[in-house]
Amino acid sequence: MVARLPTSSLFRASLARPSGSTTGKLLSRAGARSYQISAKPSEEKGKSSPLYKYKFLKEPATVGIVGCPFSGGQKRAGVDLAPNKLIEAGLVDQLSSLGWNVHYESQQSYIDIPYNPIPTSSPSAPSKTEGTVETQQDRGEVVQRLPDPDIGLMKKPRLVSAVNEKVAKQVGEIAEKGWLPLTLGGDHSLAMGTVAGTKSKYPDACLIWVDAHADINTPLTTESGNLHGCPVSFLLGLEGCDVAPFNEWLSPCLKPEEIVYIGLRDIDDGEKKILRENGIKAYTMHHVDKYGIGKVVEMALDYVNPNREKPVHLSFDVDALDPTVAPSTGTPVRGGLTFREGHYITEALAETGCLVSVDIMRIS
Predict the structure, then answer these.
(1) Domain-by-domain residue ranges, the chain?
(2) Do β-strands 118-119 and 140-144 pair in parallel, antiparallel, or remain unpaired?
(3) Which of 51, 133, 155, 192 is the most buried (most CB within 10 A)?
(4) pLDDT averaged over the chain?
(5) Is 359 annotated as a binding residue?
(6) 319 among the known binding-site residues?
């Protein structure tokens, strides 16, 4: 039951190393370390198959984990550490105990992106003569092979685009196998890649976006220039999003009627205008308080997937949860979902049997 990921598997992850039928391999690559881990379910570990049948996935049910240690869509470091920390905390074993086959390979390929600033202490870092060296408050001394100046208001556009292009390819490849891609972020700019990858396999997939924020600013309306606030606009192809380098690989793949929000409570004025003009359905925390989470999830599914026959991509930003539940996020907003409300969303979506892709974003 991978739908329990945002709560029981992520927030309760133990510090135990993978065990049981889990196998791992350590690879060396240009001085860097790369991990491959796989696990199979068994009765001894818990369940031999998931609780629910998934309509669009091949059997045996398999999760392909995409760990993307990326924080370039915004200024704060920390979210880039989450994927490996979650794996170290025993996530692979926890998933296999829920009846899933699990495959994970750490992604050293992101280090190859020339716009990526890498700590000089890292064995993967280029020499200081190969790029520009600077000192960052959160990361210390870093070296970056190629500059990445602003394009208009957008900050780090080349880095964000290059990482998302790789993510889209990897998610698409996992989906093509009939597996469920589980992307561990990383900031929410990564949804450009995850949703594009899902849509390459399931063009009619709908998107459930659980978040405190709408992330639908455009390169023309963003106040900060940080692209973690813009992924939905790029997926929709809104005005100002047909811009290099994103348009070199990303085409609009999402329609306004294919997305629904749950948990919003911190929306920019420009985003409110975009939501209204495009007729995008959004259930805020006001709706959760008024109707209860069960009714809100039912209404959300009825809107984007009334017959429960379309694939569902769940993009879950942990800042949708109240900071008292999930303080480990860089963008906390008071008045969010409770532990049980967040858990219920994932349970209800799993129950449909329609899940084909899951993002867990913004753990810091």
Answers:
(1) 2-361
(2) antiparallel
(3) 192
(4) 86
(5) no
(6) yes
- CB-CB contact of 303 with 295 (8 Å): no
* 213 annotated as a binding-site residue: yes
The answer to whether the beta carbons of residues 174 and 104 sit under 8 Å apart is: no
Q: Which residue reads 């880039």 in tokens?
A: 80
Annotated ligand binding at 287? The verdict is no
Q: What is the pLDDT of residue 119?
A: 77
Q: Mean of the pLDDT values across residues 54-81?
A: 78
The three-state secondary structure class of 286 is helix
As a whole number of angstroms, the distance between CA 358 and CA 364 comes to 18
Please, which residues have CB within 8 angstroms of residue 165's CB and are 6 or more apart in sequence?
193, 249, 250
H/E stretch holding 344: helix 339-352
Q: Which helix (H) or strand (E) holds 297?
A: helix 293-304
Q: Is 211 annotated as a binding residue?
A: yes
Name residues whose C-beta falls within 8 Å of residue 130's C-beta, 6 or more positions apart in sequence: 143, 145
CB 70 within 8 A of CB 80: yes
Task: List, in order, residues 6 or more apart from 83 with CB less than 8 Å away.
Answer: 67, 68, 69, 106, 184, 185, 186
C-alpha pair distances (Å), 262 with each of 1, 256, 272, 337:
21, 15, 15, 10
Single-letter code of the amino acid located at 226: N
| pTM of this structure | 0.89
Distances (CA, A) of 126 to 32, 97, 121: 11, 40, 10
Contact between 188 and 241 (Cβ < 8 Å): no
Burial class (CB in 10 A: 0-12, 13-18, 19+), 50: buried
Note the pLDDT tens digit of each residue in 164-215.
Answer: 999 999 999 999 999 999 999 888 999 999 999 999 999 999 999 999 999 9
121-168 confidence digits (pLDDT tens): 777 777 878 788 877 766 678 888 889 999 999 999 999 999 999 999
Q: Token pair for residue 105?
A: 């390979």
